[in-house]
Amino acid sequence: MKLHINGDINEYYVQTICMIFFPGEKFSGEEEEGAPVLHLDVAEGVDEITATVKLQYQGKETVATKQIVLSGEFTKDRARKIVIGHAILSAAGEMMHYRPSWGMLTGVRPSKVATELLLSGLSKTKARKALTSHYMVIPKKAALATDVAIREQQIIGNPDPKDCSVYISIPFCPTRCSYCSFVSYTSKRLLSLIPDYLTLLCREIRTKFRTIRELGLRVLTVYIGGGTPTILNAEQLRTLLATVSECTDVSALLEYTLESGRPDTIDAEKMAIAKAYGVTRVCVNPQTLCDDVLKGVGRCHSAKDFYRAYNIARQSGIKCINTDLIVGLPGDNFQSFAESYDKILALDPENITVHTFCVKKAAEILREGKRVYNLRGGDAGKCVDYSQIRAAEQGYHPYYMYRQKNMVGNFENVGFAKPGTECLYNIYMMEEVHSIFAAGAGAVTKLVDYAPAGSGKKSVIRRLFNDKYPYEYLESDGGDGQAEQIVQFYRELGF
Fold first, then answer.
1. Which one, of 248, 244, 187, lies nearest residue 469 by Cα?
2. Contact, 279 vs 237, CB < 8 A?
3. Domain, as residue range, for 36
4. Alpha-carbon span 136 to 133, nearest angstrom
5. Which residues 6+ apart lie within 8 Å of 365 measured at CB?
């Protein structure tokens, strides 16, 4: 796709809106035959900003203009984004005969805008109306974003600057799903790195917790993710969890998650070890209960394997179980998704997370030549609606939400929970309310000086990146070099 831009404009923002209508499109410096071309002009007067868009595609042309009078309701930067968004959505919507559910909201956190509106003094009803009128969000999505924002703020409360969480990365899987883009490793040679990886990881865990203690911080949650953490054998898992217990009082944690994930890696011994070492939440993720769909996306387990793993997790006594399902998987449809979802509801897990299928550049499915990007999403919208209606009927509420690029139908990922069982780490991480200390390959420590939405201030965030790949991580200092940077960040905050 070719962009011709005139004015003080963030080109990346324009690209992200264009990708709502042209998912998977690449932006080049040349006009290619058959590719869309967009002309955007932004004119700024003393009291108004005007955006004009001309879109050309497949021999057709549409034009749209939007103007905002600067009345103090928006900052100039926000007003500029709104007029650009309105103009592109109007022109592209007319061209493609399509209205995106989330309007011009392209960011990871649509509930953030709802939070800002609520904290500015708007009522729940007026916040919803602002999302629909200013940001062109359809009413049911505006209601979802507002509901999630309210629940997030209830859980977040008034964060203490001394609070933090810890993330531990196990970037290995038994096989790689065709849609996966995570840094996870599956070959025998790479899996052979696990013993050495675990040794260095435990050293980094000790270093990170020592720094946390020296700064006088309080760990609220620990999240062990991947990859598939339960790819570790029983003794390796014991070693990992014993290291965490050595470093902190796990009984004082508000939450301790082991993202078990793949049912084919779960057994009774591992769950018993997790329970013994204080884990309070596990994830057993089928993605679908349709065996043909599982096979098609490279999941080497069956629905029967999931039921076996789920029952083991339930019998272990770990109090909170999460299950993940994915809307829009290749080969899935509304009937098979609805059957999977109803079967999950019948199990009565504490948490259900419904993701929308999303493919990134590194996914194997793209190299297979399959067409996976889908503007309208086929059955996906119907599946998303069904999941949210049925969750409400069964007493679950949406408590966190995020979005990604190139999601089928431009929909969302939503976490549902029974009251009091919300995954705190997901909220803390997504809303960036306190620092997350991360250990392991591909892990990113996020140091946060939090400023509440609507406070007029901006949160200060500094990221410290570990080496991405396990073999690089094994040649590193295991995060030792980050301690000084972490201490300096907190010293600047007055710790």
1. 187
2. no
3. 1-98
4. 6
5. 178, 179, 297, 330, 359, 372
Question: What phi and psi, each to the nearest 5 degrees, are found at residue 7?
Answer: 135, 175
Q: Write the CATH number for 253.
A: 3.80.30.20
pLDDT tens profile 135-186: 999 999 999 999 999 999 999 999 999 999 999 999 998 766 555 655 445 5
Statement: residue 366 has pLDDT above 50: no
pLDDT digits (tens, 9 = 90+) for 7-26: 878 899 999 999 889 887 88
The tally of CA atoms less than 13 A away on the side-chain side of residue 18 is 26
Q: Where are the beta strands (DSSP E) in 111-189?
A: 163-170
- Domain check: are 369 and 379 in the same one? yes
Amino acid code (one letter) for 294 = L
CA angle in degrees (0–180, nearest 5) for 411-415-419: 140
Q: Token pair of 97, please? A: 């005969």
The H-assigned helical ranges of 264-420 are 268-276, 291-296, 303-315, 334-347, 364-367, 380-393
Which residue, among 411, 415, 441, 418, has the nearest Cα to 429 in the 3D structure? 415
